[in-house]
Amino acid sequence: MRKPPMPRVLSLIAAVLLAAGLIGCQQPNVVDDLSDTSFQLVDTDSTAVAFPQDVAGDIVVLGYIYTNCPDVCPMTTANMKQAHQQLGAPDDVQFVTVTFDPLRDTPSVMQRYSETWEAADSDWMFLTGDTSTVNRMMRRIGIRHQVTDTTTTEDGEQIFFISHSDLVTLIDEDGRIRQHYSGSRTPPEILVEDVNKLRNGSTIR
Amino acid sequence: MIAGVLAGCASDDASAPDGAPGEASAVTPGALTVEAAWARPGGAGGMSALYARVGNGTTSPDTLQAVSAEVARTVEIHESYENDDGTRGMRPLGPIPVPTGEQIALAPGGKHVMLIRLRRALQPNDSLAVDFQFAQAGTRSMTVPVRLQPPQ
After folding, report:
1. Is the ipTM above a cut-off of 0.90?
2. Which of A108, A149, A183, A198 could lock A161 by a disulfide, CB 3.0 to 4.6 Å apart?
3. CATH T-level topology, domain B30-144
4. How far apart are the C-alpha atoms of B32 and B134, rounded to whole Å?
5. Nearest-angstrom CA–CA distance, B17 and B19
6. What chain B residue is nearest to A111 in terms of C-alpha separation?
7. How many CB atoms lie within 10 A of CB B64?
8. What is this structure's pTM?
């Protein structure tokens, strides 16, 4: 006797849905998994920070700046600061700003930057490192940075400016990059919303 | 509300400049005005940026020739731009024309005044003296507040 056709149709539908990732164990959308790597950076007091290991277990909001950038980079830091405030400086979310200009942005310069942004008393990290480590980290994450313009001050000092990726990155508790955002143009509310999605285990976008 | 957006600030019009999008208020008839100026915080020896709205309600085209501020060793007019690959950079810009009847926004992500090598730290709620020098209207002097966020 022939089996009724319906179960086969149902199993076909199930297979299609599974293939589409609509049922079953849905994997989070991971841009890159950084948990297999380690970048040895330093905080503003020259304390060593292994990134992302030392912040594992926290959701990370990661921004990239250089401190001689007074226009676009502050837009990114301002957005991060507003997100930080809206989240209430939470224990489970680590804010990290890292420079891609480590030769000029020493720990003490990063300390001044954190003070300027009134973030020095929070647990927000402002990191720098040696050039090769910073470059390796930026390459891995996909942050481009290149000197493109210079100006000479009245004192004869040459100051160079960097063209750079304009991004903020959201990393989950397991060190996996889950989303990149425009650093200067993303409303802080979007960052907050996606942090809350990660907290709830729901997908982003 | 501030943050007037104008023609010419092309690369950054896709999103409102940092801060609340607002309506560009009309120019003041008969007057060249510099309004809603504010500056970013910055560390001693570091950098800051200065923003404002310049409106020309006169019948003469004018030009913002230069800006000076005692707080910085060097002051330059710059603009931020976006490259084809999405990276963003910044370059010096010459004097800025301010045509009759138009308002020019010096705003985050676009044209702005660079305060280079600050003689002292600029913290939120500090203020600084600034001179805007115009070809026709002469010098406009004002005291500018330091803010973490654009004025709303």
Report:
1. no
2. A149
3. Immunoglobulin-like (2.60.40)
4. 9
5. 6
6. B43
7. 26
8. 0.83
